[in-house]
Write a structure and sequence with these properties.
Radius of gyration of chain A: 23 Å
Largest sheet of chain A: 6 strands, antiparallel
CATH class of the largest domain in chain A: Alpha Beta
Number of helices of chain A: 11
Number of domains of chain A: 2
Distance between the termini of chain A: 19 Å
Structural class of chain A: alpha/beta
Strand content of chain A: 15-25%
Oligomer: heterodimer
Number of domains of chain B: 1
CATH topology of the largest domain in chain A: FAD/NAD(P)-binding domain
Shape of chain B: elongated
Strand content of chain B: under 5%
Largest interface: A-B, 57 and 59 residues
Shape of chain A: globular
Mean pLDDT of chain B: 86
Helix content of chain A: 10-25%
Number of strands of chain B: 3
Chain lengths: ~550, ~190
């Protein structure tokens, strides 16, 4: 009989990849312990603000001075407000450091479900333009996989997640298993036609988003409230809480333990295996050890890397599974410092109805066929068209009845495009353990040092130029280019620091997300990424996780991990 | 339609949501009353009365309710206490003092004792002078609009409030009469 500290598998983290690891492991029959450092969040029951109207918030949704004090970093995220504040960590309780001249925004949600509750839900496949890029450019190390390796796993996870989108046949943005696409509004349709008319290599498509456009696997379709960030009572967007964790629980093989801060992975130097993890109970401070045959780190990019760094031992003095010295290095995030907007005239007799939790997407078109003189890789655009509403009155001159009445009617249309630029892997964009600053559990903290460099900056000029010319081609007026350096981390696509690669001397993980140095240790969250592409990465993490579990369980059954 | 009639209609529109004392305040013209009929948590009485006048100038009652009908001044007071830094609070209070000084200079009486037209003229001058940088008048307008357009009566009865639309339609016809569609999102 199994005692309560020994399992077949341990998954650290319950966010978007932890949920997937839990679902796959339990469905394959493994008794699985999921450890989550934060509190329990039960689907629907623990979404306290999900139905609240603006007037029910004392500050009508605005962050307060206390919010800014408790969440000096987190409150600057676009999705932070009075209705979502409970999802973001108190920065003071969970410190990290950076060099003074290199700020980094580490955006975190410590609770069951993690950031799968507040994610942006955009899902874009990578292609071989991405998986081959490092090899072709001689940057970083080669990905140990190609599109054909991951394509069936994209299919697999997409069928479960439920992604609405439109198949377009674009080689650099492969189509997936799509639910019906959401609709573009009038201005977006117009801009799309204008762009595609003028440039044969540029396409605009509706965002591919993990919101259901019809009933799917027992989950209700999107009701177009556009309130995803508060948690959806319909389960209409994909999160661990709404989808993977319930599936895992239904197997009877899941044990979910919230309030469990993983301190380190336990390594047995005789068997060269991970034997389990050491946990600090967040409430009692008690140390507990859990044992398992296989360990999956899904604690988020920097969370998993922290655990490995903090698991240093005699054999691996610089961090567990770090014989390569690559652990902690090559941190990336997408650069979205450039946004361009334009007024769109001639559509005053058109409007839209309902809240669409989605925008448009223009896939990368640079360095596909041609070669840009100033930079390698490329960028995509997200954005959308909209009519202004009453809040346009903040900056509009006027007082009195006519001013008031003008604000009750929809104002002018505008179209906006935001570039998402690929970031290259640099060895000195890195995290290290900081033993001088300890957290409330007495654990070391992370020191994060990362900046965007020449290639990312060179891309910004081109992003501004191409966005402007596309809006101009669509008849946009008053084109406004905003270039404002966004602190790395704020795109919340942080990835790398335990990269996959072919060579154990230069990478931490192999083609199965398995540690080169420790056969029964897997890392399947964003830490594994070898390059960043320019697409939103979550669906790739999910596919890699399901694929890694499939491999790990086969290896277990073949006796290769015992 | 005169103001008295407008307010009566508003009251009907709101299903009698305006208390009789608030109604009396509105009908009296709301000028230079000795104190506000709510309890400020941040502002002094005199400042609170100025905020009432300013909010009334920005969004007066017309065929639809005004800022005073939906509790905007008390909301501004709460926001000043809870949502702003000391520097921003100071900017607002300094703004009120300067406004009072301008009123004395131009009309030789306090802001509260000016006519609505003169108050609006003072605010209009202030708005013209304010750069695009953060300013008192911008804060006052933002808070007034936020408090007004996110209040239940305005969202429910003036704007097109639909918290659970069910579907999204990308292209629907609009006319000059079409009002802004709103849901439970936060601005």
């Amino acid at each position: 009989m199994q005692d309560n500290t020994t399992f077949d598998a341990i998954v650290v983290g319950s966010g978007i990849t932890g949920g997937w690891a839990a679902k796959e492991l339990t469905e394959k029959g493994l008794k699985t312990l999921v450890l989550e450092r934060g509190r329990q969040v039960e689907h629907v029951k623990d979404y306290p603000t999900t139905n609240d109207a603006p007037w029910q918030f004392p500050h009508r949704g605005r962050a307060t001075a206390d919010d800014k004090k408790n969440h000096p970093v987190q409150h600057r995220v676009y999705a932070f407000n009075e209705g979502t504040r409970h999802w973001w960590v108190n920065d003071n309780d969970h410190p990290y450091t950076t060099p003074e001249d290199k700020p980094f925004a580490w955006i975190r949600g410590y609770h069951v479900g993690g950031r799968s509750i507040m994610w942006g839900r955009q899902c874009y496949r990578w292609s071989d333009y991405d998986f081959e890029a490092n090899l072709k450019d001689g940057v970083g190390v080669d990905w140990p996989i190609r599109y054909k390796d991951i394509a069936p796993w994209y299919d697999y996870v997409e069928r479960f997640v439920g992604i609405s989108g439109k198949a377009e046949g674009i080689p650099q943005l492969p189509d997936g298993q799509f639910l019906p696409p959401m609709e573009m509004n009038c201005v977006e349709k117009h801009v799309k036609a204008a762009i595609e008319d003028k440039w044969s290599d540029r396409k605009m498509t509706i965002g591919r988003v993990a919101n259901l456009t019809r009933e799917h696997n027992g989950r209700t379709p999107c009701q177009h409230r556009n309130l995803c960030y508060r948690g959806c009572p319909y389960g209409a967007y994909f999160s661990s809480n709404s989808a993977t964790l319930p599936a895992a629980a239904a197997t009877g093989n899941l044990t979910l333990r919230p309030d469990s801060v993983v301190e380190s992975v336990i390594f047995d130097k005789d068997t060269r295996r991970a034997t389990g993890v050491r946990v600090i109970d967040a409430n009692t401070g008690k140390d507990i050890e859990y044992k398992a045959k296989v360990v999956f780190l899904c604690a988020s990019t920097l969370g998993s890397t922290f655990i490995l760094l903090n698991s240093a031992n005699e054999e691996f003095p610089d961090g567990l599974a770090n014989s390569s010295g690559a652990l902690g290095k090559y941190l990336m995030d997408h650069d979205y410092s450039v946004r361009v907007g334009a007024s769109m005239e001639g559509f005053d007799d058109k409007y839209y109805s309902g809240g669409r939790p989605n925008g448009i997407y223009i896939p990368r078109f640079r360095n596909i066929e041609d070669k840009h003189p100033d930079f390698i890789r490329g960028y995509g655009f997200q954005g959308g068209g909209s009519r202004s509403n009453w809040n346009s009155g903040f900056g509009k001159p006027g007082f009195g009845g006519a001013y008031k009445d003008s604000l009750t009617h929809p104002g002018p249309w505008s179209m906006r495009l935001v570039g998402f630029g690929e970031c290259l892997p640099y060895a000195d964009n890195a995290v290290t353990l900081n033993k001088d600053v300890l957290d409330k559990h007495g654990l070391p903290t992370l020191h994060i040092s990362a900046t965007f460099k020449e290639n990312e900056k060179a891309m910004r000029d081109d992003i501004a130029t191409t966005a402007s010319e596309m809006l101009e081609a669509a008849g946009g007026k008053n084109i406004q280019v905003q270039v404002q350096e966004v602190t790395p981390g704020f795109c919340i696509h942080e990835m790398g620091t335990a990269r996959m690669g072919r060579d154990p001397k230069t990478s931490v993980l192999n083609q199965w997300n398995q540690a080169h140095d420790v056969d029964n240790l897997f890392v399947t969250d964003g830490a594994c990424m070898t390059s960043s592409a320019c697409q939103n990465p979550s669906i790739t993490y999910m596919a890699l996780t399901a694929r890694a579990v499939d491999y790990a369980v086969k290896e277990l059954k073949n006796g290769n991990l015992s | 339609m005169d103001r008295r009639e407008a307010i009566k209609r508003t009251s009907l529109l709101l299903g009698g949501a305006i208390s009789s004392s608030a109604m009396a305040g509105l009908l009296s013209g709301c000028q230079a009353s000795p104190s506000v009929d709510w309890s400020p948590v941040f502002l002094e009485q005199e400042q609170a009365r100025m905020v009432e006048s300013i909010a009334d100038c920005i969004l007066p009652a017309t065929e639809t309710p005004g800022a005073l009908d939906v509790g905007v001044p008390a909301f501004i007071d709460l926001m000043l206490k809870d949502a702003y830094s000391a520097e921003e609070q100071n900017r607002f209070l300094t703004g009120l003092s300067s406004l009072e000084a301008s009123s004395q200079e131009k009309y030789e009486k306090g802001f509260l004792y000016c006519s609505n037209e003169d108050q609006t003229a003072l605010l209009t001058t202030l708005e013209k002078e304010a750069a695009s940088a953060p300013s008192f008048i911008r804060m006052a307008k933002e808070l007034t609009l936020l408090g007004y357009f996110t209040s239940e009566p305005i969202m429910s009865n003036v704007l097109n409030y639909n918290p659970v639309p069910g579907k999204y339609e990308g292209c629907v016809d609009a006319t000059a009469e079409t009002v802004v569609g709103v849901d439970n999102n936060i601005f």
